[in-house]
């Protein structure tokens, strides 16, 4: 394993935003320098970025794989597990690493399968001090552990790239139908998400301190994919992510091939959580990816001894983005996350009904539904 030079937090040691121009110049040359590791055109190497040290003094390192095509071109970073328990993206990046047929014809890939290595080691969303790395960007070389890690990631990965894709899942005890979240008011971000080809895009800047927002502010158009659950590598989520990543690589001229179009496209600006008003056992009537109207039954809450109680209805028109995977609920707890589709909802529903059962959209909908209990709302 090739290791980079040791990076520390001395002021001025980590590259600043001004180094973007230097990186842009260097990538047009034969050799790309990562610490003491040189990566030439057509080469692929592993480097390790040292972000901290354990109490025993051993280095804490982020593993990075850099793959360069035979010709200079765009640089795309793909990252996963910024939240250490969200490892579907890790599985997707590993598939890229293992794919013998994915050959770059130009440009460079920076693959970061696990960003939050400390959270990953503990199967935790957070760092050991309970800070959220994805709320710590752009960070500071003299700040907390999270702040120092964020600064290094920004300087050593994001600043080197022209574009970025950050892979996420739902939070613990929830699942998400695949959806892109991006600031579509930035033209290059819009073009990047259109190339990815996701059915649902939530148009938002992202919370303050998150990686994608800091990357965009640093001049690297970046979006995130939200799909599936924590602590899992779900095969259909991986298939979905790889379809989109390859679409982007094709549109950027980095690999050969023809992009695959999604079943439909819709961009939404608002979402809403449907919450329970009573407690009990949940029987769902919809699954992730379903289209719902105001008044559509979402779930029924039964008592533990079988008495039927509250029926939860959708208060919005839209698409089911996410759901709780807990089979029980209590008053005020979130049950279903709806993306509000302002228009064209009926046309989308018609497209979905016409899709074959073996389409990726239908397969991933059915697969995600296995994490919950879906029953006919008219059952006796």
UniProtKB/TrEMBL annotation:
Q: Origin, by domain of life? A: Bacteria
- Write one Pfam family the protein is assigned to: AstE_AspA_cat
Xref: CDD domains: M14_ASTE_ASPA-like
Tagged with keyword Ligase: no
SUPFAM superfamilies in alphabetical order: Zn-dependent exopeptidases
Region feature Disordered, mapped onto this chain: 1-25
- Among its keywords, does the record have Metal-binding? yes
Task: Write down the required cofactor(s).
Answer: Zn(2+)
Any GO MF annotation of the entry: metal ion binding
- Which residue range or ranges hold the Succinylglutamate desuccinylase/Aspartoacylase catalytic domain? 73-249
Keywords from the named record:
Hydrolase, Metal-binding, Zinc
Record InterPro entries: AstE_AspA_cat, N-alpha-Ac-DABA-like, N-alpha-Ac-DABA_deacetylase
The identity of this protein, by name, is: Succinylglutamate desuccinylase/Aspartoacylase catalytic domain-containing protein
Record the organism. Answer: Planctomicrobium piriforme
């Amino acid at each position: 394993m090739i290791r980079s030079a040791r990076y520390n937090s001395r002021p001025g040691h980590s590259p600043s935003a001004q180094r973007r121009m230097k990186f842009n110049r260097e990538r047009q040359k034969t050799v790309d320098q990562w610490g003491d590791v040189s990566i030439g055109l057509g080469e692929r190497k592993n480097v390790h970025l040292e972000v901290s040290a354990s109490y025993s003094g051993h280095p804490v390192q982020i593993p990075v794989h850099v793959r360069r095509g035979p010709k200079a071109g765009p640089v795309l970073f793909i990252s996963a597990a910024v939240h250490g328990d969200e490892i579907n993206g890790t599985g997707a990046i590993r598939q890229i690493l293992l794919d013998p047929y994915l050959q770059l014809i130009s440009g460079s890939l920076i693959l970061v399968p696990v960003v939050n290595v400390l959270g990953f080691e503990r199967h935790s969303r957070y760092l050991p001090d309970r800070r959220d790395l994805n709320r710590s960007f752009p960070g500071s070389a003299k700040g907390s552990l999270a702040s120092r890690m964020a600064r290094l990631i920004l300087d050593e990965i994001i600043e080197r790239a022209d574009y970025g894709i950050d892979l996420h899942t739902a939070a613990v005890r929830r699942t998400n139908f695949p959806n892109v979240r991006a600031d579509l008011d930035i033209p290059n971000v819009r073009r990047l998400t259109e190339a990815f080809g996701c059915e649902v895009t939530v148009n938002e800047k992202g919370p303050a301190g998150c990686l994608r927002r800091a990357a965009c502010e640093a001049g690297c158009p970046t979006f995130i994919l939200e799909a599936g659950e924590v602590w899992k590598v779900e095969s259909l989520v991986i298939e979905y992510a790889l379809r989109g990543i390859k679409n982007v690589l094709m549109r950027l001229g980095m690999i050969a091939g023809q992009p695959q179009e999604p079943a439909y496209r819709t961009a939404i600006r608002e979402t809403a959580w449907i919450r329970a008003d009573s407690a009990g056992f949940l029987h769902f009537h919809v699954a992730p990816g379903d289209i719902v109207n105001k008044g559509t039954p979402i779930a029924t809450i039964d008592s533990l001894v079988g008495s039927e109680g509250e029926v939860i209805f959708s208060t919005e028109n839209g698409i089911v983005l996410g759901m709780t995977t807990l089979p029980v609920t209590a008053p005020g707890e979130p049950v279903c996350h709806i993306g509000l589709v302002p228009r064209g909802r009926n046309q989308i529903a018609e497209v979905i009904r016409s899709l074959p059962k073996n389409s990726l959209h239908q397969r991933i909908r059915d697969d995600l539904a296995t994490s919950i209990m879906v029953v006919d709302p008219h059952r006796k």
